[in-house]
Amino acid sequence: MLRIAVLVSGGGTNLQAIINAKGDGRITDAEIVRVISNKKDAYALERAKENGIESVVVAREDYDSRQDFEKALIGSVDGAKPDLVVLAGFLVVLPEELTRKYEYRIINIHPSLIPSFCGKGYYGLKVHEEALKRGVKITGATVHFVDSGCDTGPIILQKAVEVCEGDTPEVLQKRVMEQAEWIIMPKAINLIAHDKVRVENGRVYIN
Ligand code: GAR
Q1: What is the predicted pLDDT for the residue at 131?
Q2: CA dihedral defined by 142, 49, 96, 118, rounded to 10 degrees?
Q3: Average pLDDT per consecutive 10 residues, the chain (207 residues; last block may be shorter)
Q4: Among 51, 55, 146, 187, which has the highest number of CB atoms less than 10 A from its own CB?
Q5: What pLDDT is attached to residue 138?
Q6: Ligand 1 mean position to 53 CA, how many Å?
Q7: CA 56 to CA 40: how far, in whole Å?
């Protein structure tokens, strides 16, 4: 059984997608053992509660220094004894100690086709605003392993989504979530749970 810790900052629709996929059998041999939020009011915490999943808040404002906050975050992740750490809309840059310790055991969902519209400053709605500004006709989502860079780790799965005439960032965000994020995140977790993902020379191969 793959033990999963899910890190969140907001609404938690990707967390919900994982819970749903476990419920309907798209994810097997895996369980969410802890949800960790850096925001006290994240709706994701409600979703954890509703589903009987332990949740923990580690908020920057509760610590005197960034260092203490990071220490607490690492402690909370370690405490869950996870085989896999899932960043599901977690908008904190991870401490390098964590990415080193959990090499190829942390995955992130990003709302674009990496390497487009990613890196520092590209998160949430901002990604879709930039995609619309650039006028791309296709966008999508990416699940990737997390390394010490920003959105630079090996890509596991991607799915393309059409941009439509008249899209607003909000409309596009919803389509990318529905047609890509909520599909490929559970799929990647299930592949990992069944030992089907391996990394060689910085590239992912799926068995
Ligand atoms: C999702 O669209 C996710 O891809 C994005 O934040 C949103 C969180 O939504 N993540 C990033 O932009 C990471 N760079 P959720 O809380 O409803 O899952």
Answers
A1: 98
A2: 30
A3: 98 98 98 98 98 98 98 98 98 96 98 97 97 98 97 98 98 98 98 98 96
A4: 146
A5: 98
A6: 20
A7: 9
For 2-206, which CATH superfamily applies? Formyl transferase, N-terminal domain (3.40.50.170)
How far, in Å, is the centroid of ligand 1 from the Cα of 111? 7
Closest CA to 143 of 186, 102, 178: 186
CB contact at 8 A, 186 and 193: no
Q: What is this structure's pTM?
A: 0.97
In the residue annotation, 110 being an active-site residue is answered as: yes
Q: Whose CA is nearest to atom 1 of ligand 1?
A: 89
Q: Which residues line ligand 1 (CB under 6 A)?
A: 8, 10-14, 44, 88-89, 109-111, 123-124, 127, 177, 181
